[in-house]
Amino acid sequence: xxxxxxxxxxxxxxxxxxxxxxxxxxxxxxxxxxxxxxxxxxxxxxxxxxxxxxxxxxxxxxxxxxxxxxxxxxxxxxxxxxxxxxxxxxxxxxxxxxxxxxxxxxxxxxxxxxxxxxxxxxxxxxxxxxxxxxxxxxxxxxxxxxxxxxxxxxxxxxxxxxxxxxxxxxxxxxxxxxxxxxxxxxxxxxxxxxxxxxxxxxxxxxxxxxxxxxxxxxxxxxxxxxxxxxxxxxxxxxxxxxxxxxxxxxxxxxxxxxxxxxxxxxxxxxxxxxxxxxxxxxxxxxxxxxxxxxxxxxxxxxxxxxxxxxxxxxxxxxxxxxxxxxxxxxxxxxxxxxxxxxxxxxxxxxxxxxxxxxxxxxxxxxxxxxxxxxxxxxxxxxxxxxxxxxxxxxxxxxxxxxxxxxxxxxxxxxxxxxxxxxxxxxxxxxxxxxxxxxxxxxxxxxxxxxxxxxxxxxxxxxxxxxxxxxxxxxxxxxxxxxxxxxxxxxxxxxxxxxxxxx
Length: 502
Fold this sequence. Notes:
By secondary structure, this protein is α/β, with parallel strands linked by helices. It has 17 helices and eleven strands. Helix content is 40%, strand content 13%.
């Protein structure tokens, strides 16, 4: 802090970061009580934005003039984050006036006085603090002719240059995600491996991310600070709503009835309990944020109840139905720890695990598989049947539901599978698919793409903004992956067939 400068009594004091606009308050007015209002109310008692800047400046000067020894003032002449030039604060201009009181000092004179900026590149070879510094000084102005010597001395740089060259080529290489040993290790047709629908969809969306997460077992770095005006993240909010829906409908199922309008307070009582449990686990950033989100929960639950009242031709027979997971103490009779086999052709199969949000029995005796979505409906995401393999859950859960329902119905007939956007953001929209979709070909192509060891980057960037692994991707990786796919490289044959599925 500038206000603390000089207290240590050191013979040399460094003050950094004296760029223009960073040193003192910017002079922004208090949004609650503006400067003009302060002047009318109490001109001698209430400080204005200008007063606060002046006070901060004089406090800094007081500390600066009382400091002992020599003082070094510096600023960064380059904004690395935004890639543009930055300029010295007026403090440096005033400091130069103290050093040269007889001269007329301008910013041009200041820049001339400061000379060449000090950087990681030393001004003399003997001043280098590291091997890298020596190399940087030696290579100044040498041009690309010296690159072979540099790459010979720094193998990591050589490897990086090779990777860039191979990625820029039309050939699909190991530098793009062609890793045959990983394909053998991650083959989903191995009876020892159990997979989920979301894992398969995520592979189809970006095989390279799949390789990083499951092949190399890399954990993505969490980014940034929690948002100050948000309590629950979308996945946490979705889990809370799922828990409320399931608990409410299970109570009604135990009473062998459908909901009525008077059940509103009962639904909200369950929600209040779940919300308080979540609040103890994840404290909200403020009461205002908590109150706003709770009000939104109430509106979403009202929408849920109203839509349930309009659909009296169905009875839930399974809620949050788990298969392939530990089901000890699970309240669902149909839950099982055994994964469900799904044939992919050629005598091969995959073992599927998951959690079906809901299965309803309709009045005609058929069953509907329902998956809740608590976000907004993006039509392009659900415009196709399988959407390049990124939309598989409806078909896979229909197969799983048919197997699980055999415990209560020897020949269960399915009416279809539905994505249910049951919040205000989703506007209670439904996206429905037939029950007997043949997903075998899609799964076979997907399984072969994994087994072949082909893990290219995504061929479009729709999901890149939400990906936790974006740091590992090539700068032009999406365009390069699309070009390699179009080149006809035989290594990408299975993946090419996969993304051709509408």
